[in-house]
Amino acid sequence: MSRLARFTAVPLLALVATLALIAPSASAQASRYEAEDAACEGTVDSNYAGFSGRGFCNTPNRVGARMEFTVHAETAGTLTLGVKYANGSTAARPADLSVNGALVRSAVAFEPIGAWSSWAVENLTVPVRAGANTVRLTAATAGGLANIDYLDTARAGDSALPPNLQWNSSGPLVFPKSDATHNIVSVKDPSVVYHNGRYHVFVSVVSANQGYSLAYLSFTDWSQAGSAPLRFLDTTAIGTGYKAAPQVFYFAPQQRWYLTYQIGDNVAYSTTANIADPASWSAPKPFYAGTPQIVLDNMGEGQWLDFWTICDSANCHMYSSDDNGNLYRAQTSLARFPNGFSEPVIAMHDPNHHWLFEGANVYRLAGENEYLLMVEAITAGGRIFRSWTSSNVSGPWTPLADTKENPFASRSNVTFDGTAWTNDISHGELIRGGVDQTLTVSPCDLRFLYQGKDPDVSAPYNLLPWRLGLLTQTNSPC
Ligand SMILES: [Ca+2]
Ligand SMILES: [Ca+2]
Predict the structure, then answer these.
(1) Where does the record locate the signal sequence feature (predicted)?
(2) Residue 76 and residue 413: Cα distance in Å, rounded?
(3) 322: CA distance to ligand 1 center in Å?
(4) What does DSSP assign to residue 445?
(5) Least crowded by CB within 10 Å, which of 8, 29, 108, 172?
(6) Which residues of the chain have pLDDT under 50?
């Protein structure tokens, strides 16, 4: 099915779009503007899967082809736009972005994704005035525009977190421990919840033969973390074979604990009714039939990894990375979880794969209409975390502290109790205020359990001596 939507019909279409979208209340978290309801110079098509609503805008393949959204802003200021697009060609389809007739950014890339049924989001922060704003994309090359599905908006600025974060780190708190059948060289990738008076920590452990598996430890206080025994989960129904990067949360609708983790070419989960009993986890079940095509087409020399699930009141969202500059997001409904996850969409991309590498976390900030995204990057000075916020768990994402000079967490904004034992602030997890699938943290009490290592040791990545330490924010505004 396709529908002609001539660009000459802008006034009527713009009016319809404006009327339809004034409806969201002042508390609306984000607004979606479907391309098929906007002014599309070209056809509204539906011949490739993965779109929202009734279709997507397919412009003529020529310079100057354009489409225009009418976007409502409650107040003047900045909005972050998330433009969902498909580009199954082999070249970028750059577009000039203008707002209310003024050029905001020229040649936004709209990079190729591999297939017309694969979708990605460009995150763009723009100035707006109160009321109706025209947001226009104009093709800069002969390919025309990428196919455009919709434009999401989120307010930008006004974060509950300070723009410059400062931290103090503990020394190493959790160490590798071996037994008769496990010769462990590192503990890494922690996920942690505090429940019934105890911390419950799940980690990857790497053995001297470079094999990855999962382990569990529990303690009442951080001073006890170093003496807590490691319970190796390959002796449970989770089983042997490659398992890494766990995430634990309580899925309240089913009154079950979920442990998700990567199993090589896929992501799997186990469940239990009792988080304190590591023998009770169920056997792994994969979320997908295999690695999705969009990941295969975009991961390059990387791999699909570091899966992270967070739910709002309607949906569960699974973020993941590929070590190749892509942050993916997939979605299922709260009612269908753990089944029904969609094909992932590229939620963010950076052409420098080290700069948007892996280890993504997303949290809801308690008491705020705000979500926090953190992604690990590699710099010459070590691993760091960059950060973004959004009023919607699915984005679009606005930079918070995302530069080398102003990171979320790196050696440069961390002081140490005693020796600075690591230059890397790597894969970890914030200490949550609760345990459930909303992954809520207090913006007044940021603590980050992370992996670090002795900077003087050089070894293959899988043999690096990772240990766990705890960052505590020192400039809380609360
Ligand atoms: Ca076209
Ligand atoms: Ca659409």
Answers:
(1) 1-28
(2) 33
(3) 29
(4) S
(5) 8
(6) 1-29
